[in-house]
Amino acid sequence: MTSGRPLFPGSSVDEELILIWRILGTPTEEVWPGISQNKEFINGKFPKYLHEPLRNLVPRLDPVGLSLLTGFLLYNSSTRKRAQDALNHPYFYSLGPEVFQLPDTNSIFSLDDIELQRDPGQRPQSSNQAELSSRRRPNHCYSHSMSMDERF
After folding, report:
1. pLDDT value at residue 139
2. Does pTM top 0.90 for this prediction?
3. How far apart are CA 21 and CA 130, in angstroms?
4. Which residue among 6, 62, 72, 104 is buried most deeply as judged by most CB within 10 Å?
5. What are the φ/ψ torsions at residue 128 (nearest 5 degrees)?
6. E strands within 5-128?
7. What are the b/e assignments for 92-131, b being 16+ CB within 10 Å?
8. Measured distance CA(37)–CA(128) in Å, rounded
9. What is the pLDDT confidence band of residue 142, given thresholds at 50, 70 and 90?
10. Which residues pair with 144 in a beta bridge?
């Protein structure tokens, strides 16, 4: 829910596939080995779409977040980012080490320093401000209070 809504809100299987393929591109052997032999894929006679930048779909997500999302949206499941590996992605660094010590049944919002906040969106920044901002914390929908020493 990086955009506050489903990324691909189809109401049928075919509509869902078209929505996915419009962004990720129609799968090819290069990105999904074996797809050209899939009978449903062959018989579907689906349109051919080129890959579009994910930035178009989730414009408020910063480059670090886009990197994580891209890892999840790979056709080939053997190269797709696993949830366990995703926890080590820099996108989550701003949450602090306590979040990784939580039991599976606890919410991150049970930590004192994390609270849900409305995302105001990104405002245009100078390149220097953007660099400083991206080092502080990613554009999450929640915040984590840290000292200046912990941020850099």
Report:
1. 42
2. no
3. 31
4. 62
5. -65, -45
6. 114-116
7. bbbbbeebeeeeeeeebeebeebeeeeeeeeeeeeeeeee
8. 49
9. very low
10. 114
